C-alpha cells in the first residue's frame, strides 16, 4: 500500500508499484493493466495521481495506451547491432530471454538467378532451403528463411535445429559463420501466411532482413531472408 506520509510523491510510489507488478508477473507482458478507477481503488489514491503515474510509465516505455482498449504492458524489445554476426539465440540470451526454434519447411531447391551468385553457385545447382519459426520466450518473433549450398551443408537435413545453427556449425562441424556480407533492412507487412506462422495480425509491421553470411575462410554459409515482428525487435548501427 502507498504511504501519503512519505516524502516521495504518491505518483512515484505508484509508478514503482506498477513496475514491481510487471517484473513479478502480476501484470503480464502484452496484457492489459487495470483501469484508472481500479488502480485508484486498489492503491487508495486519486485518479489524477493514477493518470500522472501512468503517463510517466508510458513515457519510460513500460506501458502503451491504446485508444478505446486500455493500457497495456509493453513486451521488451530484443536488440542487436546490425553489422555484427550474432545468432538469434545469442541475441535473446543477451536480452534475458529464452529461445527455441521450430522447423516449418526443409527442402532441396535449385539455385535461381538471385541465389546462385550470392552462394557462389551456378544456376540450377542444389540449394538447401530451411524455414524456421523462432521463438523469444513463448512467443514467435521471427520467420527465418535460410538458403545453404547443398553440397556443403547437406548434413543439416538430419539435424534437429531447435537451437542455434551457428553454435551447431562451430561446435560440431568447425564452420564459423563470422563474416557478414551485404545486409539490407526494409519494412514489410505480414501477409496471411506470415501472420499465421508468427501468430500476429495480417498487415503487422515486420522487419525484412536480407543478408549473406560467410565463414572464416570467406565461403558463403547462407543467404538469409528473415521476417521479424517490428514492435518486438530493434537494430542499432
Helical/strand content category: alpha+beta
* Reported CATH architecture of the largest domain: 3-Layer(aba) Sandwich
Helix content: 25-40%
How far apart the termini lie comes to 43 Å
Protein name: GntR family transcriptional regulator
Keywords: DNA-binding, Transcription, Transcription regulation
Pfam family, one: GntR
GO molecular function: DNA binding; DNA-binding transcription factor activity
Structural commentary:
By secondary structure, the chain is α+β, with helices and mostly antiparallel strands. It folds into 2 domains: 10-73, Winged helix-like DNA-binding domain superfamily/Winged helix DNA-binding domain (Arc Repressor Mutant, subunit A); 78-236, Chorismate lyase (3-Layer(aba) Sandwich). Helix content is 28%, strand content 34%. It has 8 helices and 10 strands. The chain has a 6-stranded antiparallel sheet. The two termini are 43 Å apart. The mean pLDDT is 88.
Amino acid at each position: 500500500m502507498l504511504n501519503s506520509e512519505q516524502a516521495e510523491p504518491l505518483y512515484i510510489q505508484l509508478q514503482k508499484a506498477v513496475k514491481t507488478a510487471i517484473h513479478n508477473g502480476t501484470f503480464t507482458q502484452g496484457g492489459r493493466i487495470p483501469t484508472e478507477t481500479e488502480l485508484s481503488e486498489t492503491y487508495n489514491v486519486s485518479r489524477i495521481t493514477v493518470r500522472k503515474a501512468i503517463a510517466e510509465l508510458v513515457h519510460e516505455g513500460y506501458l502503451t495506451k491504446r485508444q478505446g482498449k486500455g493500457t497495456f504492458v509493453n513486451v521488451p524489445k530484443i536488440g542487436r547491432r546490425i553489422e555484427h554476426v550474432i545468432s538469434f539465440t545469442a541475441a535473446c540470451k543477451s536480452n534475458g530471454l529464452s529461445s527455441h526454434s521450430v522447423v516449418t519447411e526443409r527442402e532441396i531447391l535449385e539455385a535461381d538467378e538471385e541465389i546462385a551468385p550470392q552462394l557462389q553457385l551456378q544456376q540450377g545447382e542444389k540449394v538447401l532451403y530451411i524455414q524456421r519459426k523462432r521463438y523469444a520466450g513463448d512467443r514467435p518473433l521471427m520467420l527465418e528463411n535460410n538458403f545453404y549450398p547443398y553440397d556443403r551443408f547437406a548434413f543439416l537435413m538430419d539435424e534437429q535445429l531447435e537451437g542455434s545453427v551457428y553454435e551447431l556449425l562451430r561446435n560440431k562441424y568447425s564452420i564459423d559463420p563470422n563474416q557478414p556480407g551485404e545486409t539490407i533492412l526494409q519494412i514489410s507487412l505480414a501477409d496471411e501466411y506470415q501472420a499465421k506462422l508468427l501468430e500476429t495480425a495480417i498487415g503487422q509491421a515486420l522487419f525484412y532482413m536480407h543478408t549473406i553470411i560467410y565463414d572464416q575462410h570467406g565461403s558463403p554459409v547462407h543467404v538469409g531472408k528473415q521476417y521479424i515482428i517490428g514492435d518486438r525487435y530493434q537494430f542499432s548501427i
